[in-house]
Amino acid sequence: DVKVTQSSRYLVKRTGEKVFLECVQDMDHENMFWYRQDPGLGLRLIYFSYDVKMKEKGDIPEGYSVSREKKERFSLILESASTNQTSMYLCASSPTSTGELFFGEGSRLTVL
Amino acid sequence: AQKVTQAQTEISVVEKEDVTLDCVYETRDTTYYLFWYKQPPSGELVFLIRRNSFDEQNEISGRYSWNFQKSTSSFNFTITASQVVDSAVYFCALREAGGTSYGKLTFGQGTILTVHP
Question: Who among A50, A94, A103 is closest to B45 (CB)?
Fold first, then answer.
């Protein structure tokens, strides 16, 4: 069964803290994605990666960075968390062949 | 630029009613893919269907059916005889087939469906 696992379901951080969100997939997919989900705005793409060590900005990359050192792992980093980054963060992976995204359960981040 | 619009923010129905969720998209590509995802209260998005731009045949899967019309750039989703378990947020999404897209999807805003017993 396909699986995308996000390390934390719920996190509470303080403004200015560095935050790491980890995502691991076991399907050997080439592509991995980080989206954030906010009410009324749907899902917006932050960053994606199509290969190890490769990354591309999505629609809202400001305030975020990513790391992909291994094919199965894609990390989202908030260098200095701010309250407007309070959101649900969703990781996904997909094979290049079909483009169908497989999602993790999400990480709900609250920045105080 | 590509765009997906789900004009219905929230829909509330009573069990056994039929309900249609609207999706309108914009793209300049001639080759593209359309998707529907379901997000139940647990939070994980579940893939429902993928349709490519060359296949305008409607599809039925149990109580679910999809109507794809290129002429109106719409990809609507109908649930027949709705059930409480259908309560979820439903997202429509678009993927362009261009070489640099790497499979990234553009999502609509989502429609919250509540089915009352």
Answer: A103
**Residues from chain B contacting residue A102 (CB–CB below 8 Å):** 47
Neighbouring residues of B30: CB distance < 8 A, sequence distance ≥ 6: B53
Summarize pLDDT for A76-85 with one digit per residue, the tens: 999 999 999 9
Record: contact A106-B47, CB cut-off 8 A: no
Q: What per-residue confidence (pLDDT) applies to A87?
A: 97
pLDDT of residue B98: 65
Residues 6-45 of A with CB under 8 A from B: 31, 33, 35, 40-45
pLDDT of residue B88 exceeding 90, the answer is yes
Element (H, E) at B37: strand B32-39
A60 Cβ contact partners less than 8 Å away, ≥ 6 residues apart: A36, A44, A45, A46
pLDDT at B59: 86
